[in-house]
Prior knowledge:
By secondary structure, the protein is α+β, with helices and mostly antiparallel strands. It contains six helices and seven strands; from the N terminus they run H-E-E-H-E-E-H-H-E-E-E-H-H. The protein has a single domain (4-158), classed as D-amino Acid Aminotransferase, Chain A, domain 1. It is 30% helix and 25% strand. Strands 1, 2, 3, 4, 5, 6 and 7 form a seven-stranded antiparallel β-sheet that branches. The longest helix has 23 residues, at 85-107. It binds thymidine-5'-phosphate (TMP). Thymidine-5'-phosphate binds at residues 32, 39-41, 69, 115-117, 141-143.
Amino acid sequence: xxxxxxxxxxxxxxxxxxxxxxxxxxxxxxxxxxxxxxxxxxxxxxxxxxxxxxxxxxxxxxxxxxxxxxxxxxxxxxxxxxxxxxxxxxxxxxxxxxxxxxxxxxxxxxxxxxxxxxxxxxxxxxxxxxxxxxxxxxxxxxxxxxxxxxxxxxxxxxxxxxxxxxxxxxxxxxxxxxxxxxxxxxxxxxxxxxxxxxxxx
Length: 201
Ligand code: TMP
């Protein structure tokens, strides 16, 4: 069983509000996989928005907010030793498997999986270094369009100021059967976080 398989197996035994957390040494790359051209790909290459790709496309971005997470090639990863060839091969294999699984899962509930971003990290399991999937997979990190109408059901509603972010996320959760129909979900106003000063004893 691959590492991702093992993780999924363990997660299944937890209830919906529990999470299994493993410490990882994060690989400083954002792995983007695309099935349909949109977002930065269309802007960069002048491709028509919504073009279905002949095959899924993996892109690599360096995780560096100050530099705006720049696009890099696979050779950059090796030149700067951010990961080795064996690790990237394993990661690519897993990205394609996750993509296949998620395309099917979303298709079953009337949603097109346009693209998404994944991160991976190194951890030790039974004394062996393994690469495992890290970070979240959610409508914040995926592009999800309604199959019938192409309505955006993801963070682009926020990025493009389209409104109705909460109903869109709720719709995705309901269709996946992970949110009860009667659930009482409402928006929370988040104010800017400020540091808490601790009183000296
Ligand atoms: P992009 O078209 O803006 O490059 O985005 C590709 C995918 O990656 C899209 O599903 C959104 C996701 N993404 C993140 O999750 N975090 C990010 O910081 C960026 C830039 C994109």
